[in-house]
Amino acid sequence: MKLLVTGAKGQLGMQIHSILDKGKSELGEIDDLYIDAEIRYVSHDELDITNLKDVNEYIDKYKPDIIINCAAYTNVDKCEGDTDNAFKVNAIGPRNLAIAAQKISAKLLHVSTDYVFSGIGNIPFKEYDIPQPVSVYGETKLLGEQYLRENCNKYFIVRTAWLYGKYGKNFVYTIMNAAKEKGHLEVVNDQRGNPTYAEDLAYHILKLVLTDEYGIYHCTGNGECSWYDFACKIIEYAGIKCTIAPITSDKIKRAAKRPSYSSLDNMMLRCTIGDEMRNWEDALKAFIDDLNK
Protein backbone atom coordinates (compact mmCIF):
# COMPACT_ATOMS: atom_id res chain seq x y z
CA MET A 1 0.00 0.00 0.00
CA LYS A 2 1.21 3.49 -0.88
CA LEU A 3 0.10 6.52 1.14
CA LEU A 4 0.64 10.21 0.34
CA VAL A 5 0.13 12.90 3.02
CA THR A 6 0.04 16.51 1.80
CA GLY A 7 0.37 19.48 4.13
CA ALA A 8 2.70 17.27 6.14
CA LYS A 9 4.30 20.10 8.13
CA GLY A 10 1.01 21.33 9.59
CA GLN A 11 -0.20 20.23 13.02
CA LEU A 12 -2.50 17.50 11.68
CA GLY A 13 -0.01 16.24 9.11
CA MET A 14 2.66 15.98 11.78
CA GLN A 15 0.24 14.22 14.15
CA ILE A 16 -0.55 11.63 11.46
CA HIS A 17 3.19 11.19 10.90
CA SER A 18 3.74 10.67 14.64
CA ILE A 19 1.03 8.02 14.94
CA LEU A 20 2.28 6.16 11.88
CA ASP A 21 5.83 6.19 13.24
CA LYS A 22 4.69 4.78 16.59
CA GLY A 23 2.20 2.35 15.06
CA LYS A 24 -0.43 3.39 17.57
CA SER A 25 -2.45 6.26 18.95
CA GLU A 26 -3.62 7.15 22.44
CA LEU A 27 -6.96 5.71 21.34
CA GLY A 28 -5.52 2.37 20.28
CA GLU A 29 -3.46 0.44 17.74
CA ILE A 30 -3.61 1.32 14.05
CA ASP A 31 -4.15 -1.25 11.31
CA ASP A 32 -1.26 -3.59 10.45
CA LEU A 33 -1.57 -2.47 6.82
CA TYR A 34 0.38 0.65 7.77
CA ILE A 35 3.38 -1.34 9.03
CA ASP A 36 4.63 -2.25 5.56
CA ALA A 37 3.11 0.73 3.76
CA GLU A 38 5.22 3.06 1.65
CA ILE A 39 4.45 6.51 3.00
CA ARG A 40 5.42 9.92 1.64
CA TYR A 41 4.92 13.17 3.52
CA VAL A 42 5.05 16.27 1.35
CA SER A 43 4.78 19.98 2.07
CA HIS A 44 4.39 22.95 -0.26
CA ASP A 45 8.13 22.94 -1.01
CA GLU A 46 7.91 19.43 -2.44
CA LEU A 47 4.47 19.57 -4.07
CA ASP A 48 2.49 22.70 -4.91
CA ILE A 49 -1.07 21.37 -4.87
CA THR A 50 -2.31 24.57 -6.56
CA ASN A 51 -0.47 23.60 -9.76
CA LEU A 52 -2.49 21.00 -11.68
CA LYS A 53 0.40 19.97 -13.94
CA ASP A 54 2.71 19.34 -10.98
CA VAL A 55 0.03 17.41 -9.10
CA ASN A 56 -0.83 15.22 -12.08
CA GLU A 57 2.82 14.42 -12.74
CA TYR A 58 3.67 13.68 -9.10
CA ILE A 59 0.67 11.44 -8.43
CA ASP A 60 0.89 9.67 -11.78
CA LYS A 61 4.53 8.85 -11.04
CA TYR A 62 4.12 7.81 -7.39
CA LYS A 63 0.68 6.20 -7.83
CA PRO A 64 -0.50 6.26 -4.20
CA ASP A 65 -3.43 4.09 -3.18
CA ILE A 66 -4.51 6.69 -0.62
CA ILE A 67 -4.05 10.48 -0.44
CA ILE A 68 -4.68 12.42 2.77
CA ASN A 69 -4.85 16.16 2.15
CA CYS A 70 -4.03 18.21 5.25
CA ALA A 71 -2.90 21.27 3.28
CA ALA A 72 -4.95 24.42 3.85
CA TYR A 73 -4.78 28.20 4.10
CA THR A 74 -6.07 28.45 7.68
CA ASN A 75 -5.39 32.09 8.65
CA VAL A 76 -9.06 33.09 8.75
CA ASP A 77 -8.49 36.84 8.97
CA LYS A 78 -5.72 36.92 6.36
CA CYS A 79 -7.98 35.07 3.91
CA GLU A 80 -10.24 38.15 3.76
CA GLY A 81 -7.51 40.26 2.16
CA ASP A 82 -5.76 37.45 0.28
CA THR A 83 -8.73 35.89 -1.47
CA ASP A 84 -6.90 34.58 -4.53
CA ASN A 85 -4.34 32.62 -2.54
CA ALA A 86 -6.99 31.32 -0.14
CA PHE A 87 -9.00 30.17 -3.17
CA LYS A 88 -5.96 28.51 -4.76
CA VAL A 89 -4.99 26.51 -1.66
CA ASN A 90 -8.45 25.74 -0.22
CA ALA A 91 -10.38 25.16 -3.45
CA ILE A 92 -8.08 24.67 -6.46
CA GLY A 93 -5.69 22.47 -4.45
CA PRO A 94 -8.31 19.88 -3.49
CA ARG A 95 -9.69 20.01 -7.04
CA ASN A 96 -6.26 19.20 -8.47
CA LEU A 97 -5.74 16.31 -6.07
CA ALA A 98 -9.21 15.00 -6.92
CA ILE A 99 -8.53 15.10 -10.66
CA ALA A 100 -5.22 13.28 -10.23
CA ALA A 101 -6.65 10.74 -7.77
CA GLN A 102 -9.51 9.91 -10.11
CA LYS A 103 -7.10 9.09 -12.93
CA ILE A 104 -5.40 6.36 -10.92
CA SER A 105 -8.49 5.34 -8.88
CA ALA A 106 -6.89 6.41 -5.61
CA LYS A 107 -8.83 7.19 -2.45
CA LEU A 108 -8.71 10.84 -1.39
CA LEU A 109 -9.42 12.16 2.10
CA HIS A 110 -9.71 15.93 2.43
CA VAL A 111 -9.89 17.84 5.71
CA SER A 112 -12.48 20.62 5.88
CA THR A 113 -13.96 22.84 8.55
CA ASP A 114 -16.93 23.86 10.68
CA TYR A 115 -16.62 27.31 9.08
CA VAL A 116 -18.61 26.08 6.07
CA PHE A 117 -21.72 26.66 8.23
CA SER A 118 -23.49 29.92 8.97
CA GLY A 119 -23.26 29.82 12.74
CA ILE A 120 -26.98 30.38 13.12
CA GLY A 121 -28.77 28.01 15.50
CA ASN A 122 -28.15 26.04 18.67
CA ILE A 123 -28.30 22.43 17.48
CA PRO A 124 -25.06 20.73 16.30
CA PHE A 125 -24.81 20.64 12.51
CA LYS A 126 -25.14 17.23 10.86
CA GLU A 127 -23.48 16.19 7.60
CA TYR A 128 -26.70 16.73 5.64
CA ASP A 129 -27.26 20.30 6.87
CA ILE A 130 -26.84 22.94 4.18
CA PRO A 131 -23.58 24.93 4.43
CA GLN A 132 -23.70 28.72 4.37
CA PRO A 133 -20.27 30.18 5.14
CA VAL A 134 -19.84 33.75 6.41
CA SER A 135 -16.12 34.27 5.61
CA VAL A 136 -13.73 33.90 2.69
CA TYR A 137 -12.06 31.05 4.54
CA GLY A 138 -15.36 29.21 4.88
CA GLU A 139 -16.36 29.96 1.29
CA THR A 140 -13.10 28.68 -0.18
CA LYS A 141 -13.16 25.56 1.98
CA LEU A 142 -16.73 24.83 0.88
CA LEU A 143 -15.77 25.23 -2.76
CA GLY A 144 -12.88 22.82 -2.17
CA GLU A 145 -15.42 20.27 -0.92
CA GLN A 146 -17.59 20.79 -3.99
CA TYR A 147 -14.68 20.45 -6.43
CA LEU A 148 -13.62 17.27 -4.67
CA ARG A 149 -17.07 15.72 -5.01
CA GLU A 150 -17.29 16.71 -8.68
CA ASN A 151 -13.93 15.27 -9.68
CA CYS A 152 -13.34 12.15 -7.57
CA ASN A 153 -15.46 9.10 -6.83
CA LYS A 154 -13.51 7.70 -3.89
CA TYR A 155 -13.58 10.64 -1.51
CA PHE A 156 -13.86 11.31 2.21
CA ILE A 157 -14.52 14.87 3.34
CA VAL A 158 -13.76 15.23 7.05
CA ARG A 159 -14.91 18.45 8.69
CA THR A 160 -13.28 19.29 11.99
CA ALA A 161 -13.09 22.29 14.31
CA TRP A 162 -11.05 24.15 16.93
CA LEU A 163 -8.05 21.91 16.33
CA TYR A 164 -5.10 21.73 18.70
CA GLY A 165 -2.21 19.33 19.19
CA LYS A 166 1.47 18.95 19.95
CA TYR A 167 2.71 20.56 16.77
CA GLY A 168 2.48 24.11 15.46
CA LYS A 169 0.44 27.04 16.77
CA ASN A 170 -2.98 26.58 18.30
CA PHE A 171 -5.40 28.03 20.87
CA VAL A 172 -4.16 25.88 23.75
CA TYR A 173 -0.56 27.05 23.40
CA THR A 174 -1.68 30.64 22.87
CA ILE A 175 -3.76 30.67 26.06
CA MET A 176 -1.08 28.94 28.15
CA ASN A 177 1.63 31.34 27.02
CA ALA A 178 -0.55 34.44 27.42
CA ALA A 179 -1.74 33.32 30.86
CA LYS A 180 1.84 32.90 32.10
CA GLU A 181 2.86 36.25 30.67
CA LYS A 182 -0.13 38.43 31.59
CA GLY A 183 -1.92 36.80 34.51
CA HIS A 184 -5.28 38.05 33.24
CA LEU A 185 -7.08 37.30 29.98
CA GLU A 186 -10.31 38.25 28.23
CA VAL A 187 -11.84 35.55 26.02
CA VAL A 188 -15.02 35.59 23.95
CA ASN A 189 -17.99 33.79 25.44
CA ASP A 190 -20.52 34.10 22.58
CA GLN A 191 -19.04 31.61 20.10
CA ARG A 192 -19.61 27.89 20.67
CA GLY A 193 -18.00 24.87 19.06
CA ASN A 194 -16.08 21.62 19.60
CA PRO A 195 -12.42 21.61 20.68
CA THR A 196 -10.69 18.78 18.82
CA TYR A 197 -7.45 17.04 19.74
CA ALA A 198 -5.36 16.31 16.63
CA GLU A 199 -4.39 12.92 18.10
CA ASP A 200 -8.01 11.77 18.09
CA LEU A 201 -8.73 13.22 14.65
CA ALA A 202 -5.63 11.62 13.11
CA TYR A 203 -6.57 8.22 14.54
CA HIS A 204 -10.02 8.37 12.96
CA ILE A 205 -8.62 9.55 9.63
CA LEU A 206 -6.21 6.60 9.50
CA LYS A 207 -9.04 4.25 10.35
CA LEU A 208 -11.46 5.76 7.84
CA VAL A 209 -9.22 5.77 4.74
CA LEU A 210 -8.81 1.99 4.85
CA THR A 211 -12.57 1.57 4.31
CA ASP A 212 -14.90 2.14 1.38
CA GLU A 213 -17.25 4.24 3.55
CA TYR A 214 -17.05 7.26 1.25
CA GLY A 215 -18.83 10.53 1.97
CA ILE A 216 -18.89 13.58 4.24
CA TYR A 217 -17.94 13.22 7.90
CA HIS A 218 -17.88 15.42 10.96
CA CYS A 219 -15.03 14.54 13.32
CA THR A 220 -14.69 16.73 16.40
CA GLY A 221 -14.29 16.31 20.11
CA ASN A 222 -17.58 15.33 21.72
CA GLY A 223 -19.42 17.98 23.70
CA GLU A 224 -19.36 21.72 23.08
CA CYS A 225 -18.24 24.89 24.82
CA SER A 226 -17.41 28.54 24.26
CA TRP A 227 -13.89 29.83 23.72
CA TYR A 228 -14.12 31.20 27.26
CA ASP A 229 -15.04 27.76 28.66
CA PHE A 230 -12.20 26.24 26.66
CA ALA A 231 -9.70 28.78 28.01
CA CYS A 232 -10.85 28.24 31.60
CA LYS A 233 -10.25 24.49 31.31
CA ILE A 234 -6.83 25.04 29.73
CA ILE A 235 -5.77 27.21 32.68
CA GLU A 236 -7.25 24.78 35.20
CA TYR A 237 -5.59 21.68 33.75
CA ALA A 238 -2.27 23.46 33.22
CA GLY A 239 -2.27 24.73 36.80
CA ILE A 240 -1.49 28.30 35.76
CA LYS A 241 -2.41 31.19 38.05
CA CYS A 242 -4.48 33.47 35.86
CA THR A 243 -7.88 35.16 35.92
CA ILE A 244 -10.12 35.07 32.85
CA ALA A 245 -13.01 37.38 32.05
CA PRO A 246 -15.70 36.63 29.44
CA ILE A 247 -16.28 39.21 26.71
CA THR A 248 -18.46 39.43 23.60
CA SER A 249 -16.94 39.01 20.14
CA ASP A 250 -17.81 42.57 19.13
CA LYS A 251 -15.10 43.74 21.55
CA ILE A 252 -12.44 42.22 19.27
CA LYS A 253 -11.82 43.76 15.86
CA ARG A 254 -11.20 41.04 13.28
CA ALA A 255 -11.25 41.05 9.49
CA ALA A 256 -13.33 37.88 9.21
CA LYS A 257 -16.68 37.13 10.79
CA ARG A 258 -16.77 33.99 12.92
CA PRO A 259 -19.79 31.68 13.13
CA SER A 260 -21.36 32.19 16.56
CA TYR A 261 -22.45 28.55 16.72
CA SER A 262 -20.56 25.90 14.78
CA SER A 263 -20.82 22.71 16.82
CA LEU A 264 -20.75 19.59 14.68
CA ASP A 265 -22.48 16.25 15.22
CA ASN A 266 -20.36 13.17 14.40
CA MET A 267 -23.38 11.33 13.01
CA MET A 268 -21.65 9.73 10.02
CA LEU A 269 -18.89 8.34 12.25
CA ARG A 270 -21.43 6.79 14.59
CA CYS A 271 -23.27 5.21 11.66
CA THR A 272 -20.18 3.76 9.94
CA ILE A 273 -16.78 3.13 11.57
CA GLY A 274 -17.80 4.26 15.06
CA ASP A 275 -17.21 7.46 17.00
CA GLU A 276 -14.32 7.04 19.42
CA MET A 277 -13.62 10.77 19.70
CA ARG A 278 -13.15 11.66 23.34
CA ASN A 279 -15.17 14.25 25.20
CA TRP A 280 -13.34 17.52 24.63
CA GLU A 281 -12.53 17.95 28.33
CA ASP A 282 -11.07 14.44 28.65
CA ALA A 283 -8.96 14.87 25.52
CA LEU A 284 -7.72 18.29 26.63
CA LYS A 285 -6.72 16.98 30.06
CA ALA A 286 -4.84 14.08 28.47
CA PHE A 287 -3.03 16.50 26.16
CA ILE A 288 -1.99 18.89 28.94
CA ASP A 289 -1.02 16.04 31.27
CA ASP A 290 1.24 14.76 28.51
CA LEU A 291 2.79 18.23 28.10
CA ASN A 292 3.43 18.47 31.82
CA LYS A 293 5.37 15.20 31.75
UniProtKB/TrEMBL annotation:
GO terms for cellular component: cytosol. It comes from the Bacteria. Its EC number is 1.1.1.133. Pathway: Carbohydrate biosynthesis; dTDP-L-rhamnose biosynthesis. Pfam families: RmlD_sub_bind (PF04321). InterPro entries: dTDP_dehydrorham_reduct, NAD(P)-bd_dom_sf, RmlD-like-bd. GO terms for biological process: dTDP-rhamnose biosynthetic process. Catalyzes the reduction of dTDP-6-deoxy-L-lyxo-4-hexulose to yield dTDP-L-rhamnose. Belongs to the dTDP-4-dehydrorhamnose reductase family. This is dTDP-4-dehydrorhamnose reductase. It comes from Aceticella autotrophica.
